[in-house]
Amino acid sequence: MRFKRIFTAMLLIVSCVVSANVQLTVRLDKVVSVVSLVDYGPYVFVDGNKAVKGVTSTQKNTDLVKGFSWEVFQESFHAMGYAIKYTIVPWNRAIKILEFGHAELLFPMSKSDERLKKYNYSREPINTVDYVIYSHKNASIKWKGFNSLSEKIIGEKRGFNYGKNWNALSDVIKYQIGNISSGFQMLQKGHINGFIGYKDTWDYVLKEEGWEGEFIKTPIIDSSSEYVVSMKGKEQHSNLLKVYSQGKRKIIENGTLDKLKTKWFGVNQAKE
Protein backbone atom coordinates (compact mmCIF):
# COMPACT_ATOMS: atom_id res chain seq x y z
CA MET A 1 0.00 0.00 0.00
CA ARG A 2 2.85 2.30 0.92
CA PHE A 3 4.62 1.42 -2.34
CA LYS A 4 1.45 2.27 -4.26
CA ARG A 5 1.27 5.72 -2.62
CA ILE A 6 4.96 6.38 -3.38
CA PHE A 7 4.47 5.25 -7.00
CA THR A 8 1.42 7.51 -7.37
CA ALA A 9 3.34 10.46 -5.94
CA MET A 10 6.22 9.84 -8.33
CA LEU A 11 3.82 9.73 -11.27
CA LEU A 12 2.31 13.04 -10.13
CA ILE A 13 5.75 14.68 -9.91
CA VAL A 14 6.73 13.40 -13.36
CA SER A 15 3.41 14.60 -14.76
CA CYS A 16 3.95 18.08 -13.30
CA VAL A 17 7.49 18.26 -14.71
CA VAL A 18 6.32 17.16 -18.17
CA SER A 19 3.43 19.66 -18.03
CA ALA A 20 5.79 22.48 -17.02
CA ASN A 21 8.17 21.57 -19.85
CA VAL A 22 5.33 21.54 -22.36
CA GLN A 23 4.15 24.95 -21.15
CA LEU A 24 7.71 26.29 -21.32
CA THR A 25 8.10 24.96 -24.86
CA VAL A 26 4.89 26.65 -25.93
CA ARG A 27 6.02 29.93 -24.41
CA LEU A 28 9.42 29.72 -26.07
CA ASP A 29 7.78 28.98 -29.41
CA LYS A 30 5.68 32.16 -29.13
CA VAL A 31 8.43 34.75 -28.91
CA VAL A 32 8.96 37.44 -31.55
CA SER A 33 12.26 39.29 -31.83
CA VAL A 34 12.17 42.93 -32.89
CA VAL A 35 14.58 45.82 -33.31
CA SER A 36 13.56 49.47 -33.08
CA LEU A 37 14.89 52.97 -32.40
CA VAL A 38 16.23 54.70 -29.29
CA ASP A 39 15.44 58.27 -30.36
CA TYR A 40 12.13 58.35 -32.20
CA GLY A 41 9.87 59.94 -29.64
CA PRO A 42 6.95 60.02 -29.20
CA TYR A 43 6.70 56.81 -31.25
CA VAL A 44 9.49 54.68 -29.75
CA PHE A 45 12.35 55.86 -27.55
CA VAL A 46 14.52 55.22 -24.52
CA ASP A 47 15.30 57.92 -21.96
CA GLY A 48 18.82 59.19 -22.57
CA ASN A 49 18.88 57.56 -26.04
CA LYS A 50 20.64 54.52 -24.54
CA ALA A 51 20.62 51.20 -26.39
CA VAL A 52 18.71 48.53 -24.44
CA LYS A 53 17.59 44.95 -24.89
CA GLY A 54 15.33 42.59 -22.97
CA VAL A 55 12.12 40.57 -22.99
CA THR A 56 8.56 41.65 -22.28
CA SER A 57 5.68 39.21 -21.83
CA THR A 58 1.92 39.25 -21.45
CA GLN A 59 2.51 39.16 -17.67
CA LYS A 60 5.27 41.78 -17.47
CA ASN A 61 5.92 44.91 -19.55
CA THR A 62 9.13 46.96 -19.60
CA ASP A 63 9.63 50.49 -18.31
CA LEU A 64 12.77 50.98 -20.42
CA VAL A 65 11.10 51.37 -23.82
CA LYS A 66 8.39 53.99 -24.33
CA GLY A 67 6.26 55.50 -27.05
CA PHE A 68 3.00 55.18 -28.95
CA SER A 69 4.27 52.81 -31.65
CA TRP A 70 6.10 50.64 -29.11
CA GLU A 71 2.89 50.22 -27.12
CA VAL A 72 0.88 49.45 -30.27
CA PHE A 73 3.42 46.77 -31.25
CA GLN A 74 3.57 45.38 -27.72
CA GLU A 75 -0.19 45.24 -27.18
CA SER A 76 -0.77 43.72 -30.63
CA PHE A 77 1.59 40.81 -30.02
CA HIS A 78 0.50 40.35 -26.43
CA ALA A 79 -3.08 40.08 -27.71
CA MET A 80 -1.87 37.11 -29.76
CA GLY A 81 -0.10 35.50 -26.80
CA TYR A 82 3.47 36.41 -27.80
CA ALA A 83 6.39 37.49 -25.66
CA ILE A 84 8.69 40.10 -27.24
CA LYS A 85 12.48 39.97 -27.34
CA TYR A 86 13.48 43.57 -28.06
CA THR A 87 16.63 45.41 -29.09
CA ILE A 88 16.46 49.22 -29.17
CA VAL A 89 19.36 50.97 -30.94
CA PRO A 90 20.12 53.86 -33.34
CA TRP A 91 18.59 53.64 -36.84
CA ASN A 92 21.61 52.53 -38.89
CA ARG A 93 22.43 49.78 -36.40
CA ALA A 94 18.79 48.69 -36.29
CA ILE A 95 18.77 48.18 -40.08
CA LYS A 96 21.94 46.06 -39.90
CA ILE A 97 20.53 43.91 -37.08
CA LEU A 98 17.47 43.16 -39.21
CA GLU A 99 19.44 42.54 -42.42
CA PHE A 100 21.95 40.24 -40.67
CA GLY A 101 19.06 38.15 -39.31
CA HIS A 102 19.57 39.00 -35.62
CA ALA A 103 15.94 40.17 -35.35
CA GLU A 104 12.83 38.98 -37.16
CA LEU A 105 11.04 42.32 -37.35
CA LEU A 106 11.74 46.06 -37.35
CA PHE A 107 9.47 49.06 -36.85
CA PRO A 108 8.56 51.71 -37.77
CA MET A 109 9.40 52.04 -41.48
CA SER A 110 7.66 54.00 -44.24
CA LYS A 111 7.44 52.76 -47.82
CA SER A 112 9.64 53.77 -50.74
CA ASP A 113 10.35 52.11 -54.08
CA GLU A 114 13.82 51.11 -52.90
CA ARG A 115 12.63 49.71 -49.58
CA LEU A 116 9.84 47.68 -51.19
CA LYS A 117 12.52 45.71 -53.02
CA LYS A 118 14.12 44.61 -49.74
CA TYR A 119 11.39 44.43 -47.10
CA ASN A 120 7.96 42.91 -46.57
CA TYR A 121 5.45 45.21 -44.88
CA SER A 122 2.63 44.54 -42.45
CA ARG A 123 -0.89 45.11 -43.75
CA GLU A 124 -1.72 47.25 -40.70
CA PRO A 125 0.30 50.45 -40.16
CA ILE A 126 1.82 51.25 -36.77
CA ASN A 127 1.73 55.07 -37.00
CA THR A 128 1.47 58.00 -39.40
CA VAL A 129 4.01 60.82 -39.73
CA ASP A 130 3.64 64.33 -41.13
CA TYR A 131 6.57 66.00 -42.90
CA VAL A 132 7.37 69.67 -42.31
CA ILE A 133 10.39 71.93 -42.83
CA TYR A 134 11.82 73.91 -39.92
CA SER A 135 13.67 77.22 -40.13
CA HIS A 136 15.09 79.59 -37.55
CA LYS A 137 12.69 82.27 -36.33
CA ASN A 138 15.06 85.01 -37.55
CA ALA A 139 15.53 83.53 -41.02
CA SER A 140 12.27 81.79 -41.81
CA ILE A 141 11.43 80.25 -45.17
CA LYS A 142 8.53 82.03 -46.87
CA TRP A 143 6.64 78.92 -47.87
CA LYS A 144 4.97 78.95 -51.30
CA GLY A 145 5.33 75.29 -52.11
CA PHE A 146 8.49 73.37 -52.99
CA ASN A 147 9.62 76.21 -55.29
CA SER A 148 10.39 78.12 -52.07
CA LEU A 149 13.33 75.76 -51.50
CA SER A 150 15.13 76.29 -54.79
CA GLU A 151 18.93 76.47 -54.28
CA LYS A 152 18.52 76.35 -50.49
CA ILE A 153 20.48 74.03 -48.19
CA ILE A 154 18.02 71.78 -46.36
CA GLY A 155 19.17 69.32 -43.71
CA GLU A 156 17.73 65.80 -43.64
CA LYS A 157 18.33 63.05 -41.09
CA ARG A 158 20.48 60.33 -42.61
CA GLY A 159 18.59 57.15 -43.53
CA PHE A 160 15.11 58.60 -43.12
CA ASN A 161 12.43 58.73 -45.83
CA TYR A 162 10.52 61.93 -46.60
CA GLY A 163 8.18 60.83 -49.38
CA LYS A 164 8.21 60.80 -53.17
CA ASN A 165 7.71 64.55 -53.56
CA TRP A 166 10.84 65.28 -51.54
CA ASN A 167 12.85 62.57 -53.29
CA ALA A 168 11.92 64.05 -56.67
CA LEU A 169 13.33 67.51 -55.85
CA SER A 170 16.53 68.18 -57.77
CA ASP A 171 17.11 71.91 -57.23
CA VAL A 172 17.50 71.65 -53.44
CA ILE A 173 20.85 71.07 -51.75
CA LYS A 174 20.15 68.17 -49.38
CA TYR A 175 22.59 68.00 -46.47
CA GLN A 176 22.83 64.73 -44.50
CA ILE A 177 22.66 65.08 -40.70
CA GLY A 178 23.37 62.41 -38.08
CA ASN A 179 20.89 63.32 -35.36
CA ILE A 180 17.99 65.69 -34.84
CA SER A 181 19.58 67.89 -32.17
CA SER A 182 22.62 68.49 -34.38
CA GLY A 183 20.31 69.54 -37.22
CA PHE A 184 18.64 72.20 -35.10
CA GLN A 185 22.03 73.45 -33.88
CA MET A 186 23.19 73.82 -37.50
CA LEU A 187 19.96 75.65 -38.29
CA GLN A 188 20.47 77.98 -35.36
CA LYS A 189 24.01 78.82 -36.51
CA GLY A 190 22.89 79.46 -40.08
CA HIS A 191 24.83 76.57 -41.59
CA ILE A 192 21.66 75.33 -43.29
CA ASN A 193 18.52 77.17 -44.43
CA GLY A 194 16.00 74.57 -43.34
CA PHE A 195 15.63 71.16 -41.72
CA ILE A 196 13.03 68.69 -43.00
CA GLY A 197 11.57 66.43 -40.36
CA TYR A 198 8.74 64.36 -38.94
CA LYS A 199 6.59 66.90 -37.10
CA ASP A 200 5.77 65.00 -33.90
CA THR A 201 9.29 63.59 -33.49
CA TRP A 202 11.13 66.83 -34.27
CA ASP A 203 8.72 68.77 -32.00
CA TYR A 204 9.41 66.22 -29.26
CA VAL A 205 13.15 66.93 -29.51
CA LEU A 206 12.55 70.70 -29.42
CA LYS A 207 10.51 70.29 -26.25
CA GLU A 208 13.14 68.06 -24.62
CA GLU A 209 15.92 70.52 -25.48
CA GLY A 210 13.93 73.60 -24.45
CA TRP A 211 14.12 75.11 -27.96
CA GLU A 212 10.40 75.36 -28.74
CA GLY A 213 10.40 79.11 -29.30
CA GLU A 214 13.51 79.19 -31.49
CA PHE A 215 12.16 77.62 -34.68
CA ILE A 216 9.10 77.78 -36.90
CA LYS A 217 7.79 75.20 -39.34
CA THR A 218 5.97 75.13 -42.66
CA PRO A 219 2.50 73.66 -43.06
CA ILE A 220 2.50 69.88 -43.53
CA ILE A 221 4.10 69.17 -46.92
CA ASP A 222 3.39 65.42 -47.03
CA SER A 223 2.40 62.47 -44.84
CA SER A 224 3.21 58.79 -44.72
CA SER A 225 2.11 55.67 -42.85
CA GLU A 226 4.80 53.57 -41.19
CA TYR A 227 4.74 49.81 -40.72
CA VAL A 228 6.34 46.75 -39.19
CA VAL A 229 8.73 45.08 -41.66
CA SER A 230 10.70 41.87 -42.22
CA MET A 231 13.37 40.96 -44.74
CA LYS A 232 12.21 39.52 -48.06
CA GLY A 233 13.03 35.84 -48.49
CA LYS A 234 12.26 34.92 -44.87
CA GLU A 235 8.76 33.44 -45.01
CA GLN A 236 8.59 32.58 -41.30
CA HIS A 237 9.36 36.19 -40.41
CA SER A 238 6.76 37.42 -42.88
CA ASN A 239 4.16 35.27 -41.14
CA LEU A 240 4.82 37.31 -38.00
CA LEU A 241 3.65 40.39 -39.90
CA LYS A 242 0.28 38.67 -40.25
CA VAL A 243 0.28 37.96 -36.51
CA TYR A 244 0.95 41.65 -35.82
CA SER A 245 -1.86 42.79 -38.13
CA GLN A 246 -4.29 40.33 -36.54
CA GLY A 247 -3.31 41.51 -33.06
CA LYS A 248 -3.62 45.14 -34.15
CA ARG A 249 -7.21 44.52 -35.26
CA LYS A 250 -7.90 42.99 -31.84
CA ILE A 251 -6.70 46.07 -29.98
CA ILE A 252 -8.77 48.25 -32.30
CA GLU A 253 -11.86 46.22 -31.48
CA ASN A 254 -11.29 46.14 -27.70
CA GLY A 255 -10.61 49.87 -27.45
CA THR A 256 -6.93 49.63 -26.46
CA LEU A 257 -5.75 51.58 -29.52
CA ASP A 258 -8.06 54.51 -28.79
CA LYS A 259 -6.67 54.65 -25.23
CA LEU A 260 -3.10 54.75 -26.57
CA LYS A 261 -3.97 57.58 -28.99
CA THR A 262 -5.44 59.57 -26.12
CA LYS A 263 -2.43 58.85 -23.89
CA TRP A 264 0.18 59.98 -26.42
CA PHE A 265 -1.56 62.54 -28.65
CA GLY A 266 -4.76 63.71 -26.99
CA VAL A 267 -8.38 62.82 -27.65
CA ASN A 268 -8.74 64.51 -31.04
CA GLN A 269 -5.52 63.29 -32.66
CA ALA A 270 -5.34 59.97 -34.49
CA LYS A 271 -1.80 59.09 -35.55
CA GLU A 272 -2.25 55.87 -37.47
Give a nutshell description of this structure:
The chain has helices at residues 2-29, 68-79, 91-99, 113-116, 164-168, 180-188, 199-209, 235-253, 256-265; strands at 31-37, 39-40, 44-46, 52-56, 65-66, 83-89, 105-110, 119-136, 153-157, 173-177, 194-198, 215-217, 222-231. The chain has 272 residues and is α/β, with parallel strands linked by helices. The termini are far apart.
Topology, please?
Elements: H1 2-29, E1 31-37, E2 39-40, E3 44-46, E4 52-56, E5 65-66, H2 68-79, E6 83-89, H3 91-99, E7 105-110, H4 113-116, E8 119-136, E9 153-157, H5 164-168, E10 173-177, H6 180-188, E11 194-198, H7 199-209, E12 215-217, E13 222-231, H8 235-253, H9 256-265
Task: List the defining traits of the structure above.
3-stranded antiparallel sheet, globular, D-Maltodextrin-Binding Protein, domain 2, 272 residues, 13 strands, 2 domains, 10-stranded mixed sheet, alpha/beta
Protein model, in words:
It is a single chain. With 272 residues, the protein is of the alpha/beta class. The chain has 2 domains: 140 residues, Periplasmic binding protein-like II (D-Maltodextrin-Binding Protein, domain 2, 3-Layer(aba) Sandwich), CATH 3.40.190.10; 95 residues, 3-Layer(aba) Sandwich (D-Maltodextrin-Binding Protein, domain 2). Helices cover 39% and strands 29% of the residues. The protein contains 9 helices and 13 strands. The strands form 2 sheets. Strands 1, 4, 6, 7, 8, 9, 10, 11, 12 and 13 form a 10-stranded mixed sheet that branches. It has a 3-stranded antiparallel sheet with strand order 2-3-5. Strand 2 and strand 3 form a beta hairpin. Helix 2 crosses helix 8 and helix 2 runs antiparallel to helix 9. The longest helix has 28 residues. The chain is globular and about 55 Å long.
